[in-house]
Write a structure and sequence with these properties.
- The chain is an alpha+beta fold and 386 residues long.
- It has a domain of 103 residues: Nuclear Transport Factor 2, Chain: A, CATH 3.10.450.
- It contains twelve helices and eight strands.
- The protein has an eight-stranded antiparallel β-sheet.
- The radius of gyration is 27 Å and the shape is elongated.
- The two termini are 25 Å apart.
Length: 386
């Protein structure tokens, strides 16, 4: 058996073993490429507000109290504010018992609660759960992680099987014969279609492994920085005192003054009073997505304790920061999202076209096996030794 035949067997059986999971993950991935855009379109009133004439935005603290008053049993853990975007609502994330998460939208001009949504029960919450966990919690994560690893192997073996034996066949291997019979067309859609997006799918699959396996996530830092990932934790408060009026507004103003670019501010409120408040600001003025600077403020006093700017980050941290936008296609906005969408659609088709190829081959093998005994009998009747 040749190496290419071994790769063929490996490609076949791994594909049969993981095909259904790949179908689900790729299908949900198609929806998640434009998750933010579709969610904001479908829930426009949740994310956007009308701006009254000559209206002034209320202090963040006032909006925070509105969110806290929604339900005393839930605890606000994050605040999301889009800067230089007056028509956007302010979003609060709140949790209960570490299991249930709410998103609460508050009108920044009236201070009224627009709506509270349970995060995991929204449409894209279910889609994301299916994409990552198959709605089966840790068991589902193990299955999708293994399938992602298998898919990486299948991309590599698929390219080996696609590679033409002679260069004059290269044109045939790079063109889909749309006018051919359905069997040939199915093969072309699988092999040629897979070839054109294999680098994109490889990037999406490899980045997906960072959420499935700690060893892969640590490998990024070991290769880039020469050491494992360091745990990121907010510094301790030097002075402990109760939060005063205007505290969150002060953090908002200080962050915008220190980081004046357009972007989204996320305040991470620590559950432990001994830790500082972490404030991230994502830069919307650079070409790459997910470029974020981090500031740490002392809880209570609002004094800046520490800053971690993206430009000063280690190579490992910069690469890890790019994992999410590469995986989702958001790296450079709309152009890369379209590429990711096409790749996800092809990935969704691969288990289907691959299974059809398997069924056609199986039918041929059965037909060949059925004819072989007839040929043996015919030779025996002719007096030929077998």
């Amino acid at each position: 058996m040749t190496l290419k035949q071994i790769f063929g067997k490996l490609h076949l059986w791994l594909g049969l073993a993981s095909g259904l999971v790949v179908l689900i993950v790729a299908g949900t991935g198609i929806l998640l490429v434009f998750e933010d855009e579709l969610d904001e379109w479908a829930n426009h009133d949740f994310y956007f507000v009308s701006v009254p004439q000559n209206a002034q935005r209320l202090p963040v603290d006032s909006l925070y109290h509105t969110a806290v008053a929604y339900n005393p049993e839930i605890k606000v853990t994050r605040i999301y504010i889009e800067t230089q975007a007056p028509g956007r609502s302010v979003i609060f994330m709140a949790k209960k018992n570490k299991k249930y998460t709410w998103h609460l939208a508050v009108n920044p001009y009236t201070g009224q609660l627009i709506e509270a949504r349970e995060f995991n029960k929204r449409f894209f919450g279910v889609v994301l759960n299916l994409h990552r966990h198959l709605c089966m919690n840790e068991v589902g994560l193990a299955i999708t992680g293994a399938s992602c690893l298998i898919f990486v192997i299948m991309i590599i073996t698929g390219i080996v099987l696609w590679w033409p034996k002679r260069w004059h066949l290269l044109k045939q291997r790079t063109r889909i014969a749309w006018s051919s019979r359905w069997k040939r067309l199915n093969w072309d859609l699988h092999a040629v279609g897979g070839f054109y997006v294999h680098l994109v799918l490889l990037a999406i699959s490899l980045t997906g492994l960072t959420w499935a396996y700690d060893w892969f996530n640590n490998a990024i830092y070991l290769i880039a920085d020469g050491k494992p990932m360091q745990k990121i934790e907010a510094p301790a408060n030097v002075v402990k005192q109760p939060i005063q009026a205007g505290f969150y507004e002060s953090l908002y103003q200080q962050t915008n003054n220190r980081l004046p670019y357009k972007g989204r501010i996320a305040m991470l409120l620590p559950t432990n009073d001994s830790l500082a408040v972490t404030v991230n600001k994502m830069n919307h003025e650079v070409a790459e997505n997910n470029v974020t600077d981090v500031l740490y403020f002392e809880k209570g006093t609002g004094r800046l304790l520490k800053e971690k700017l993206f430009k000063n980050s280690s190579a490992g941290n910069k690469i890890r920061r790019m994992v999410y936008p590469i995986h989702t296609g958001k790296l450079y906005g709309l152009p890369t999202q379209i590429i990711a969408l096409i790749a996800a659609m092809v990935a969704f088709s691969l288990p289907i076209t691959g299974f059809v190829i398997y069924l056609v081959g199986r039918k041929k093998r059965k037909a060949k096996a059925a004819k072989k005994p007839l040929r043996v009998i015919a030779r025996q009747e002719a007096g030929v030794e077998v």
